[in-house]
Amino acid sequence: MSESTVKQQSTAAFYGQAVVSFAVALGATGVGIARLDADSWVRAFLAIAVLYLVTSSFTLAKVIRDRQEADRIVSRVDQARVDKLLAAHDPFDKL
After folding, report:
1. What is the 3-state secondary structure (H, E, C) of 22-79?
2. What is the pLDDT of residues 15-42, one digit of tens each?
3. What's the pLDDT score for residue 7?
């Protein structure tokens, strides 16, 4: 009565698209900051802000992924307990 779990895996094309998209976005932002008509300390501040945003985005994505994996494990443990109870239950035992 247990459902088989399908492991979702990204294709190589999707992975490649994500990497290229990230590189283009980061590169375009870097070029934009470098060519900005402002003092060097303003460009440096913006560059540090972009790096902070990128690192915090990676951290947030990891935290969300870890929480989803933990919820999936808890769900599987709960399902195993229900399966065990159902397998041990005999409805005709007390008749």
Report:
1. HHHHHHHHHHHHHCCCCCHHHHHHHHHHHHHHHHHHHHHHHHHHHHHHHHHHHHHHHH
2. 899 999 999 999 999 999 999 999 999 9
3. 65
Q: Chain-wide mean pLDDT for the chain?
A: 85
- Position 60 pLDDT exceeds 50: yes
| Distances 23 to 11, 30, 33, 87 between C-alpha atoms, Å | 19, 10, 15, 53
Give the whole-angstrom CA distance, residue 47 versus residue 87. 60
**What CA–CA distance (Å, rounded) separates 84 from 82?**
5
